[in-house]
């Protein structure tokens, strides 16, 4: 399986994990390890960035995982830039998952504020991975604004409904010159495999693993699904047809 490259850094795993909703930080750490992921995101609002002994950060081994702090909870570009600068100073990383969703009910990304923040953060030297509506026009605008990858939603955050936006994600993948990471709504390993078969470069999963009866086993299931989906994409799927096509001749044995 080919490695994933974002902003010049290579990753062996194409599965990114979130760290919310786990019943304990110990369980979260065990699930992260089982997933084989190398990219882990955590909300800045959940981290005491002034405290190097913060309990969440202690369970994310910096030698195993790249930490991708996210700005979940901010409502404007101005708040996002402020949060990003705090995180860069405290956590010593310029990687950032940009999330701006002012509506607490559906947590949909604010398109205008996201684009505005991405432009400013890229100019400030951040490696920006913006969470976004599955909008192909916006994806190109974010790419032109300096995003290192785009993260279109499959369906609303935490909904577990899968790839409701699949046809728009398909267009985003077709047009993108930067990695496309499907984020939000992936609720089953089959959803992740579908995204990877479509050509997504990676997927980000949180709720589906954190709320499973066995998060560690579910993390392993997602790892295998992402690997299978990617290998299938690289192998190239067969063309879909509207009628049957026999896999072997139907007539020759009748001519004996």
From TrEMBL:
InterPro entries, per the entry: Aldolase_TIM, Thiazole_synthase_ThiG, ThiG
Q: Can you tell which superkingdom this protein's organism belongs to?
A: Bacteria
Chief location bin: cytoplasm
Entry keyword set: Cytoplasm, Schiff base, Thiamine biosynthesis, Transferase
| Catalyzed reactions per annotation | [ThiS sulfur-carrier protein]-C-terminal-Gly-aminoethanethioate + 2-iminoacetate + 1-deoxy-D-xylulose 5-phosphate = [ThiS sulfur-carrier protein]-C-terminal Gly-Gly + 2-[(2R,5Z)-2-carboxy-4-methylthiazol-5(2H)-ylidene]ethyl phosphate + 2 H2O + H(+)
Transmembrane helix as UniProt keyword: no
The listed locations are:
Cytoplasm
Its UniProt pathway annotation is: Cofactor biosynthesis; thiamine diphosphate biosynthesis
Q: Which Gene3D superfamilies match?
A: Aldolase class I
Q: Thiazole synthase ThiG domain spans which residues?
A: 5-249
Its Enzyme Commission number? 2.8.1.10
Q: Binding residues for 1-deoxy-D-xylulose 5-phosphate, per the UniProt record?
A: 158, 184-185, 206-207
List the Gene Ontology MF annotations in alphabetical order: thiazole synthase activity
How would you classify this enzyme at the top EC level?
transferase
Pfam families assigned:
ThiG
Q: Does the keyword Transferase apply?
A: yes
Q: Which residues form the active site?
A: 97
GO cellular component terms?
Answer: cytoplasm
What's one GO BP annotation on this UniProt entry? thiamine diphosphate biosynthetic process
**Subunit comment:** Homotetramer. Forms heterodimers with either ThiH or ThiS.
Instruction: Give the family from UniProt.
Output: Belongs to the ThiG family.
State the protein's purpose.
Catalyzes the rearrangement of 1-deoxy-D-xylulose 5-phosphate (DXP) to produce the thiazole phosphate moiety of thiamine. Sulfur is provided by the thiocarboxylate moiety of the carrier protein ThiS. In vitro, sulfur can be provided by H(2)S.
List the HAMAP family.
ThiG (MF_00443)
- Supply the name of the protein: Thiazole synthase
């Amino acid at each position: 399986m080919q490695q994933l490259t974002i902003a010049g850094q290579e990753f062996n795993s194409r599965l990114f994990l979130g760290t919310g909703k786990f019943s304990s930080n110990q369980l979260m750490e065990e699930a992260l390890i089982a997933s084989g992921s190398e990219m882990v995101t955590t909300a800045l609002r959940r981290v005491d960035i002034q405290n190097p002994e913060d309990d969440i950060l202690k369970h994310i081994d910096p030698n195993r995982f790249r930490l991708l702090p996210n700005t979940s909870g901010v409502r404007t570009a101005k708040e996002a830039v402020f949060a990003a600068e705090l995180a860069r100073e405290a956590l010593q990383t310029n990687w950032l998952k940009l999330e701006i969703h002012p509506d607490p009910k559906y947590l949909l990304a604010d398109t205008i504020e996201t684009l505005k923040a991405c432009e400013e953060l890229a100019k400030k030297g951040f490696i920006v991975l913006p969470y976004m509506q599955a909008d192909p026009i916006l994806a190109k605008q974010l790419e032109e604004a300096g995003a290192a990858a785009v993260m279109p939603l499959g369906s609303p955050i935490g909904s577990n409904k899968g790839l409701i936006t699949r046809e728009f994600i398909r267009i985003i993948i077709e047009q993108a010159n930067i990695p496309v990471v499907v984020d939000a709504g992936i609720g089953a390993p089959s959803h992740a495999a579908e995204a990877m078969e479509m050509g997504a470069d990676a997927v980000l999963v949180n709720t589906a693993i954190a709320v499973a009866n066995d998060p560690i086993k579910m993390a392993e299931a997602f790892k295998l699904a992402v690997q299978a989906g990617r290998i299938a994409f690289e192998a190239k799927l067969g063309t879909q047809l509207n009628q049957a096509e026999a896999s072997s001749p139907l007539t020759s044995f009748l001519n004996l």
